[in-house]
Design goal:
The chain has 19 helices and no strands. The protein is mainly alpha-helical. α6 crosses α8 and α15 (333-347) runs antiparallel to α16 (349-361). 39% of the residues are buried.
């Protein structure tokens, strides 16, 4: 059966054809764009052709039925559209496009097609995340080209006007062309050098979505991309560690707020609402990542939380040990702060506060709200309720209005009342 022939003619049998198109698009968009960029070298043409194919699917499938091979149908329509555009090009550009036309129209075996698609998707990810681009441009370009997120949605996530984001994306693509950034996956030492930058982009993407006042869809996209990268690079431990970390964190997404939309700390969350399938996937993924890189260690810490039946059963001594290792190989003030908090739960609040004092003495986290909140939490555990409440209010004052600020003020209010019991 050819890709364009509908498998099931009656439209009435497919009232959800639009939903099918959306689901296929989530996976196919990257494949189409990546392949057409490789063949044509034209980012705009690749994106326009992919979008045209999706538009035709949304128009035709509810009427004609969903094809047996929806992804193949979309790829064929996009290829045909790109070929038509190239054939209409001016005579002066004709020679430049001849090879692209041949590649678009040449038949390929299924095995060749699949191998090219895998390579194309990796090439696209590494090109979007090239270190020659600014980090925010890398994240935005990854969202637009690899994930297919509309420019308007990316602009909203970055809190900039649509026109600003459009220009930013255009500049990023222009820089790739002008700097002749190769559309390829590095190998050997170059892969080891470039991979952390790719993982950093995914980490920023997930963090933007996981933030209490962020765009939840960005976290979903980060998980999807991490799964894809792990599928394409299964022997890279840090890729597995990053995916596992995302899965453990994302498993709590439905339990992070109460019925009024207020944030809940880990100890107050209903663990029955955690996504157990995601936790199991995270554990399987982490088990295949023996190396102790930064993301693997963070995933092991997250696994301690994800597998504890309740907050009292959390293995804080193990978490403190993982943080000891993490701060050695990846020192940063924020990791040192998290280590201090972990030691506060593993070895007593006084021990944690002493470590926080050491971090704050460096001046790196001056007026950092989460540092003040960590001090407040451990101070409350020491029984100094009034001081802890004042620290929680100070931490809240350092934050912009939002869910985190409300949560800190609520904790301050709880401590200002009479002591329980």
């Amino acid at each position: 059966m050819t890709p364009g022939r509908p498998a099931r003619p009656p439209a009435a049998a497919h009232p959800a054809a639009g939903a099918v198109a959306g689901a296929v698009a989530a996976d196919s968009y990257t494949r189409i764009v990546a392949t057409l960029i490789r063949v044509t070298g034209d980012w705009t043409l690749a994106e326009d052709s992919a979008q045209e194919a999706l538009a035709q699917a949304l128009e035709r499938w509810p009427r004609d039925g969903v094809p047996d091979n929806p992804g193949g149908w979309l790829m064929t329509v996009a290829r045909n559209r790109a070929t038509d555009v190239l054939r209409r090009a001016s005579v002066e550009r004709r020679k430049l496009h001849e090879l692209a036309e041949l590649a678009l129209t040449a038949p390929a075996t299924d095995d060749q097609e699949e191998e090219e698609v895998v390579d194309d998707r990796l090439r696209l990810i590494f090109t979007c995340c090239h270190p020659a681009l600014a980090l925010e441009s890398r994240v935005a370009l990854t969202l637009r080209t690899v994930c297919g997120v509309p420019t308007a949605d990316i602009a909203r996530a970055f809190l900039v006007p649509h026109a600003t984001m459009t220009r930013r994306l255009t500049r990023a693509k222009t820089k790739i062309a002008d700097a002749r950034i190769p559309y390829q996956v590095p190998s050997g030492p170059a892969l080891a050098e470039r991979l952390p930058g790719v993982l950093a982009v995914l980490y920023v993407l997930f963090t933007r979505g996981y933030d209490p006042d962020g765009e939840p869809g960005l976290a979903d996209e980060a998980v999807r991309l991490a799964r894809l990268l792990h599928h394409l690079l299964p022997d890279q431990p840090e890729v597995a560690g990053l995916l596992a970390l995302f899965l453990f964190q994302h498993s709590r997404r439905e339990a992070r707020r109460d019925g009024q939309g207020n944030l809940l700390t880990l100890d107050k969350q209903d663990r029955a609402r955690w996504d157990r399938a995601a936790i199991r996937e995270g554990l399987r993924t982490l088990a295949a990542a023996p190396a102790d890189g930064p993301y693997v260690l963070q995933a092991r810490i997250a696994a301690c939380h994800a597998t504890a039946p309740d907050s009292g059963a959390t293995d804080w001594p193990a978490i403190a040990r993982w943080y000891d290792e993490l701060v050695e190989i990846h020192p940063s003030p924020v990791i040192a702060l998290n280590r201090a908090a972990a030691h506060g739960y593993a070895h007593g609040p006084a021990a944690g506060l002493a470590l926080i004092d050491q971090v704050l003495a460096t001046g790196a986290l001056k007026d950092y709200p989460l540092a003040v909140a960590a001090q407040a939490d451990l101070t409350a555990r020491l029984g100094h309720r009034d001081h802890a409440a004042a620290l929680f209010r100070r931490a809240a004052a350092l934050l912009a209005p939002g869910a985190e600020r409300r949560a800190l003020l609520e904790r301050a209010g709880d401590l200002s009342g009479p002591a329980p019991g």
